[in-house]
Every structure is written in C-alpha cells, then in structure tokens.
Design a protein that fits this description.
5-stranded antiparallel sheet; 3-stranded antiparallel sheet; mainly beta; single chain; globular; 9% helix
C-alpha cells in the first residue's frame, strides 16, 4: 500500500478568475499521523505512542479507534498560515496560523477505481478583512474525541516553495488530494 499526498493552491481575483496556481506532491506527514496510522493498523487503537494536539498538550494514547476519529464525516479541516519555519516531523501545529480565518471544509470528494482510492479535501478562504495575507504554510487537522474532550490533531504540514499573497477581496482555495494505491 502506498499513500500519496498532493497539495494544490489556487488564488482567485475579486472577479473569481484564477490568477495563480501551485500543485505538487507533499512529503509532509507529521509524527501524529504516523502514530495514529500505526496504532490503527497494529492494535486497533487510534494511536501508538504519544500524540500532541495543536496546543502542544499530550493526548492519551489509548483512544479506541471505533467512533473516535470522525475525519471523513466532516471533522477534518485545512488551515493556512504565514509561518516559514521548515517542516519537522514533530510539528503539532502550524508555525503561525493566520488569525481570524475559518477552518471548516467546503467539500470532500471520494473516488475509487480498481485498487486505488482518492479523497480530496478542499477549503476556500475569502479575504474580507482589510489586511493582506501572505500564505506561506498549510496543514490538515482532524478532530480526536477522547473522554469528554475534543482535540485538534495536526496530520500534515507544508511550507510553500513560493508564498501566495492574498489581498482584500481575493480568495485562495487549498486542496489536499490523498491517493491510496
């Protein structure tokens, strides 16, 4: 089994015309994702070892996978930030999330062909404030419910090769395309 991850960013002007586009394969899974995948595949538990939520707090590693991670049901989010620090496998949050922007997904699509499955997560951010954003990083989080608490868990973090500047009235669409072969 191979898991491939691609990222696409498209900037739109005030009239909705695409004016800039970046697309490429990512190599940015962080330890949280790897420990969750290992735990799920080897023990049926959601995690193997310690994971950290986006605040840096350790989350108990014995969360039962059944019904605890609801990523495909809409609790997966894409974040944008302006941090430029290189990705590290131990990252648990973006370097610096752009404040005041929403992180709910606008769409999730799934496709299957033979032994290949693809899931695309898409989020569009409209810059309505008067400030200009410089998007230098993106990431994906999922919601992990353990006990009575919800935890945002970073799965993927990418620093862009070329930052994208988004001025008032413009928008940026971020896509993560997961392919499992």
């Amino acid at each position: 089994m191979k898991v491939r991850l691609y990222q696409g960013l498209t900037k739109y002007d005030k009239d909705g015309r695409a004016v800039e586009h970046q697309w490429g394969e990512c190599d940015s899974f962080v330890r949280n994702f790897l420990q969750m995948l290992q735990g799920f595949l080897t023990s049926g538990l959601l995690t193997s070892g310690q994971i950290r939520n986006t605040a840096g707090t350790a989350v108990n590693s014995s969360a039962d996978a059944y019904g605890q991670m609801n990523s495909i049901s809409g609790l997966m989010s894409i974040l944008i930030g302006d941090g430029a620090v290189a990705v590290d496998i131990d990252d648990y949050a973006l370097g610096h999330a752009i404040p005041g922007v929403s992180s709910m997904l606008t769409s999730i699509t799934q496709a299957e062909s033979g032994q290949t499955m693809a899931i695309t997560f898409t989020k569009t951010y409209l810059n309505e404030p008067s400030s200009t954003w410089t998007v230098r990083e993106t990431g994906m989080i999922t919601l992990l419910r353990y006990g009575n608490a919800n935890h945002d868990i970073l799965l993927v973090r990418d620093v862009l090769g070329s930052p994208i500047t988004v001025t008032q009235g413009q928008s940026i669409q971020v896509q993560y395309y997961w392919q499992i072969v």
